[in-house]
Amino acid sequence: MFHVFTGLISLYVIWRFVLPLSLSRPAKILLSLLLLGAAEHHLVTRNFFGSMASPEVPATLLMVLGWLFGALLLLAMLLLLRDVAGVVVYAFSRPRGRRLLAARAWGKGAAVLALMLSAIGVWQAVRVPDVKTLEIALPKLPPELDGFRLVQLTDLHASRLLEAPWIDAVVKKANGLDPDLIVITGDLVDGTTDARAADVRPLQALRARHGVYAIPGNHEYYAQYARWLPAFEQLGLRLLLNEHVTLTPNGQRLVLAGITDKMAAAYDQPVPDAARALNGVPKTDPVILLSHRPIGAAQNARLGAGLQLSGHTHGGQILGPHLLTQLANEGYVSGQYEVDGMQMYVSNGTGLWPGFPIRLGRPSEITQIVLRSPARVATP
């Protein structure tokens, strides 16, 4: 379905942009083939170079393909904007509407703008993210733990695009924050254990006073999920698979729970079960729940979670179209939400899938969260 959708987008751009151009027929055919190739490059990598989730081609080529694919999508959106405006104007003034719908200058300008924005988007996507710091009041957190600092990494997507040096830079930034706790909320890798062994190795250097914990995302299931679990453990990552641990910083109780991803069902693996993960947790304990996807928040709140940390959405990656991602994730896409008394934070992601390396207005992040005790917050 994905390839059909991208193919239709390329045909729309050919119809509304290429065909009206004052070019020779061979030039139009060549440009059309280039657009079709950009639209369907995932199909080629899936069949000949790794998989769709993990294209095994050089990073430079991935960036070029991402640039062309991103430019195609942006151009399609700009052309659609013109066409919708043209139809609206046509309803009131047919001559003006026709001129707008046939405006070649708009198409050429849109193409240049799309190429420029896509190039900026690729640069934004592959750079080492900045640290984003925020404070969140965690229900039931005792005053003794006010100021407890955790770092959330998510959607690292270690791949041929984001290789060992990039992962190492992220690790050094995270460690430089001297956190009490580090959590990774899924999609650590794209590829097999053999292909990504060197790229994930820097993760073993992550350090936090109360440990480094992780949960799987949907991408872990696409390639050797069963082999990745022990590989992550060997890197010093404690996996939470529908279970919880009780941390005791400063002699106080803090529950950290984690669930699997719903993609597990397609691979005959345990599906996410927040009830099981929180089974046996005293109602008086503060609870942080790690869930790769920002879904099921209302149910998780009823089960006793005080804070849900999620990723998966990449913040929608492009401002504007991010609203489509929001619709696909129960209305959650980026930032902090309150759901039935539970706090939820959805990170834009630290990395992203190499098949679409574009970010515009939705920057990647290394998230530092300072927990606040409601008792301290309420004190004047």
From TrEMBL:
GO terms for cellular component: membrane. Its EC number is 3.1.4.53. One of its GO terms (biological process) is lipid A biosynthetic process. Residues 148-315 form the Calcineurin-like phosphoesterase domain. The keyword Calcium does not apply. It comes from the Bacteria. One of its GO terms (molecular function) is 3',5'-cyclic-AMP phosphodiesterase activity. This is 3',5'-cyclic adenosine monophosphate phosphodiesterase CpdA. It comes from Achromobacter piechaudii. The lineage of its organism: Bacteria, Pseudomonadati, Pseudomonadota, Betaproteobacteria, Burkholderiales.
